[in-house]
């Protein structure tokens, strides 16, 4: 575990974070403290705090640092062209707010090379198990272009975030 907020022993968390830095050969690491929205932070080696509050994405163009976020059943997305790196937590709210699209556009403003960039999706809850209702169902079905009639809606976070890799990363 590398997260202090879940009640694990703080010395163990610090030790695990140190092991990550040693394994990756980095000097610093930064962790996003998620809000389930679409806010992001650009990170550089001059940033003092290693816990970045109120964000669901981190971006950097500096080497020798690692970026991290915690994921349960939401979709983790990593985007990089080998120089600029972005990590994204795409839950249902972030997906509806099109966080991945926002982050790719910001990365392009920083010089992301769309011809070299790759987007990777990590494991997340699958459509067969991501049962939503109410606000989530209404917004996710609208984003998917489905005709929602009320009740339960099964959303596919991967499919809803895929257009980013096709639309913005390949010119």
What is the helix tally?
5
**Tally of DSSP β-strands:** 10
The outline comes out as globular
What is the helix fraction of residues, given as a range?
A: 25-40%
The main β sheet shows up as: 5 strands, mixed
Low-confidence stretches: none
Rounded to the nearest angstrom, the distance between the terminal CA atoms is: 39 Å
- Please state roughly what percent of the residues sit in beta strands, choosing from under 5%, 5-15%, 15-25%, 25-35%, 35-45% or over 45%: 15-25%
Overall pLDDT:
91
In order across it, which strands form the biggest sheet? 2-4-7-6-8
Radius of gyration: 17 Å
Structural class: alpha/beta
Order of helices and strands: HEEEEEEEHHEEHEH
Briefly say what this structure is.
The chain has 171 residues and is an alpha/beta fold.
Q: What can you tell me about this protein's structure?
A:
- The protein is an alpha/beta fold and 171 residues long.
- It contains 5 helices and 10 strands, in the order H-E-E-E-E-E-E-E-H-H-E-E-H-E-H.
- Strands 2-4-7-6-8 form a 5-stranded mixed beta sheet.
- The longest helix is centred in the first third of the chain and has 15 residues.
- The N and C termini lie far apart (39 Å).
- The relative contact order is 0.14.
- The model has no long low-confidence stretch (mean pLDDT 91).
